UniProtKB/TrEMBL annotation:
It comes from Geothermobacter ehrlichii. Its main location: cytoplasm. This is Ferrochelatase. GO terms for molecular function: ferrochelatase activity; metal ion binding. It is found in: Cytoplasm. GO terms for cellular component: cytoplasm. The keyword Transferase does not apply.
Amino acid sequence: MSDRLGLVLLNMGGPDSLEAVEPFLYNLFSDRELIRLPGGALLQKPFARLISRFRARHVRQLYDDIGGASPLREWTERQAAGIAARLGEQVRPFVAMRYWHPFADEALERMKTEGIDRAVVLSMYPHYTGATTGSSINDFRRRAAVVHPQLEYSLIEQWYDWPGYLDALAARVTAGLEQFHELLRDQVRILFSAHALPQKFIDRGDPYLRHVTATVEGVMQRVGHPHWTIAFQSRSGPVRWMEPDTVEVIRDYGRQGVESLLVVPISFVSDHIETLHEIDIQYRNLAFEHGIRHFHRAPSLNDGDDFLQAMAGLVRRHLEAWP
């Protein structure tokens, strides 16, 4: 048995070129744990093919606006390498994406080739939901059983209240506030924006909302600013979504005469399309259109030393409890 340990980071993935946008969307819409298209399992993939073709042109334009590709793979690989380096030279980093390369079976093949038969599998979604964390973990389990059945692995599925994570996120909020003139900071509205889920996920007992709320409360206990709220972004399709909508909150702030707004991406641990385009371009323009004169986004965690140290500490604690 090898004494080396694999560290596998699970994430959503994103297209690495404009040509990859449509197949990425197809993989995403094909996942019934994330989206249940009409017609049942039999028609999921045909509907996914139609929807991905229909949406690809618009989504390609969004990725073109931010450089032609998602940076999510690069950030996740840097996070994996950084966490592994802080754990010791016996730890080898791997990345397993759900909807685009490198897929779980690619990471598993590499571990098998390198003779690694023990691994910690870390979800990079801090807040658990069956739609993202659950889907990624189930996919990893299925592929591991086929590709590397000898692998012994242990899962870290959620860490929404891990103190080091809350400290790092609080530091990003403070850095965001420092972008405003000191005379404005007390009046800044802090808007924590998390990725929305269909309300039916929450109604059936998914803990995502509780986890997001606990994270924000933990962060604001550290920051101490009086004006903050939580909203949900990236809503699409004719279903009932979690509320309030980030777009509507920004509009309401404008109607209320709010002039200074800091948006904090709360369910994302690195920059990708939702931060670089949806917040930095779409929401910024929306804020200006509604009279909000000062708009900033808190920096993402990305590969910040404090965040990587926090995650290494999380893995270290997990290893202590794993026989």
